[in-house]
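Exercise 7.
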Amino acid sequence: MSDKDAEQAIIFGNRLHKRAKHLRKWAKLKGVSCYRLFDNDIPEIPLAVDFYEGYLHMALYERPYNKEDAFEEVWLDIMRKTAAEKLSIPAERVFLKWRKRQRGKDQYECLGKSKAEITIQEDGLNFIVNLADYLDTGLFLDHRLLRKKIRCMAKGRDVLNLFSYTGSFSVYAAAGGATRVVSVDISNTYQDWAERNATANALLPGIIDFRRADVLEEIEKMRGREAFDIIVLDPPTFSNSKRMQRDLDLNRDHPELIHRCLKLLKPGGVLYFSSNSRKLRFRPEDYPQWLCRDISDESLDEDFRDRKIHRAWELRKG
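Solution. The predicted structure, written as tokens, is:
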């Protein structure tokens, strides 16, 4: 271990311990069991560390400079051991990934087949997370408050969840008493996962209409045939699945995508649009007949110190 690595391990361990001490109290008060402990808080330590009910999920962000893989692996092992020791978590319950900049289908590629799955609880609901086999675990912790918002609004309403991933918004909407929930994603893997999440909450697939489809194609098919009170639109920044008619570049295409979704809203309906792209430029003037409200800050909970991890907007008819 180099002197620099040793110094960074001490800094990282101290920050992690301090943050965990604060968040344990907050989490107990709020009934939260999974939360972010560390998110690139120190530029020299580009890690995200999430706590999942006694497990740790650590991800290395891409550095702004090149570092040889051999040295990186040594450094990561030191940080992993430091996190396990400082938080008193067994080493076998600490999972670490390299989050390199990726595009298209690569961002959803399976990293392994260990099936390191656990079922966690959030707001009284059960969700299956996989800590090892994909870059993301299956539950975006930064959307916790927006999920709760959808649940509170869903009773007696028709809800559409686009790019639904593992269906967490769909489960929340169904649990909130939605009349109908339509959950659309092109991935067989994630739609299967979403159905398992529904079953884990005794929400049989009949309650949620799971549609394996290209979102752009599906919303065109819906136009004039189906309408919704609430639409959740949380697309990937880029997607080029072979099953899609065309590539999706959200920075370029989001106005067209949003306009198509707005045409599916019932009178008085609301669209929630979210993105983690920092380059996306949302222009309210592109939607002159709609009331656009930036809800980014109110959609992020106490554990997310990086208030730009995602941005979110609410669009209602003006």
